[in-house]
Amino acid sequence: MLGTSRRLAVLAEGCFAPLDAKTATGVLRYRREEVAAVIDSTRAGRTAEECVGAGGAIPVVRDLESAAGFGADSLLIGIAPQGGELPAAWRAMVKDALSRGWDVLAGLHVFLDDDPELHAIAERHGARLIDARRPPRQRPLAASRAEKLQALVVLTVGTDCNVGKMTTALELRAALQNHGVRAAFVATGQTGIFIADQGAAIDAVPSDFAAGVVESLVLDAARDADVVLVEGQGSLSHPAYSGVTLSLLHGAAPAALILCHQSGRQRLRVASGIERDIPPLDQVRREYERAAAWVSPAPVIGISLHTFGMSDADARAACERAALETGLPVTDPMRMGCAPLVTAILAALDRRHAGRGGAVAAPAAKSDAGPGAGPRGMRAPHA
Question: What DSSP line would sit under 29-66, residue for residue?
Fold first, then answer.
């Protein structure tokens, strides 16, 4: 991970649950072979699969010493709390890890390597503090260059935070590759960066340059891809995170959007005491299409529904209702596979090539196997 082979202890003390430990869950799902143990004393003795539906038999342990006993050699901060601070109670464990010579990987808004005490401990013991959220040094301005790409740029957008935007993009990449399509994933948040070993946390970039950084990432990814899948962030209607959502929408200049939603979630996850309703799916769809058109028109071509916690029958019924409401293909990629969304993307790719004077037939379809194939029963929630 991030340049070297690791055996990670994932720190999720007191919060190793499906909707609270997004970074931990994402790494367990997509970089499972690099995780030695998860640290959460309140759930010690259980497995990762039992706690979050991902990670199989990887043990949940009480402390750093127990994680070391399972071969851990690095510490990953497994949450991204509101406000981005390192929880005060975790500081001692971070210092302990550094004193062992372990690298500490974090995706917090507060950069651990800028902390004088932690930096000194790391230097003294030959360890590194790796801040995945640190923004790139180059700060370009966006200029709608991604709109002109031959590759089809697809952005995942959402009705709220933590409804499956990253997971949908990663599952679609795997499914498209299984169909013989050159597909690339653009990571725009800390969890995606840990999984992909590259990208930029757009919410840490100064607002004037956020769209330009997104644009640069998309242009780089498109050099070797027919489809570029961009990880979305936040929601247009979220009072805290709409700014980064709009930066992604305009910087990526996508040709198509996949709308992600958690079935049954009726209110935005915002600060305590504040409640805002999530609009109906078809209204959200129109809002995204209207906002995209300010720079580069992009239709919503499919819905990715997050149905974790529902029975298989209820999940399928939820997909049917969403399809009826929007008139779009709907699936839960983790349960039912990506086939409806892959079909929509391949059709959009063919239209794009045809519209530019060089019709390209979509690759012959294969079985929608690999990540995203279903049905799978209960799985970890989408990040």
Answer: HHSGGGEEEEE-GGGTTSBHHHHHS-STTPBEESSHHH
Count Cβ atoms below 10 Å from residue 241 Cβ, excluding itself.
Answer: 19
Give how far the C-alpha of residue 334 lies from the chain's centroid of Cα atoms, to the nearest Å.
14
254-286 pLDDT, tens digit per residue, is 999 999 999 999 999 887 667 789 999 999 999
Question: Burial level of 293, CB count in 10 A (0-12/13-18/19+)?
Answer: exposed
- Quickly list DSSP for 86-155: PPGGGHHHHHHHHHTT-EEEE--SS-GGG-HHHHHHHHHHT--EEETTPPPS--PPP-SGGGG-SSEEEE
pLDDT at 275: 77
Assess contact for 211 and 251: CB atoms under 8 A. Answer: yes
What residue ranges of the chain have pLDDT lower than 70? Answer: 82-83, 272-273, 356-383
DSSP string, 272-300: TT---BPPPHHHHHHHHHHHHHTTS---E
Q: How many CB atoms lie within 10 A of CB 350?
A: 15
**Which amino acid, 359?**
A
Instruction: List phi, psi (to 5°) of 47.
Output: -105, 160
Q: Report the pLDDT value the prediction gives residue 323, as an integer from 0 to 100.
A: 97
Model confidence pLDDT, tens digit, residues 87-98: 888 999 999 999
CA torsion angle 54 14 233 27 (round to 10): -30
CB 149 within 8 A of CB 219: yes
Q: Half-sphere exposure (CA, 13 Å, Cβ side) for 18?
A: 17
The three-state secondary structure class of 217 is: helix
Cβ atoms 159, 235 nearer than 8 A: yes
- In this structure, are residues 48 and 55 in contact, taking their beta carbons and an 8 Å threshold? yes
Tally of residues, the chain: 383
The span from the CA of 228 to the CA of 169, in Å, is 9
pTM: 0.91
Q: 67 vs 43, 118, 180, CA distance in Å?
A: 14, 21, 40
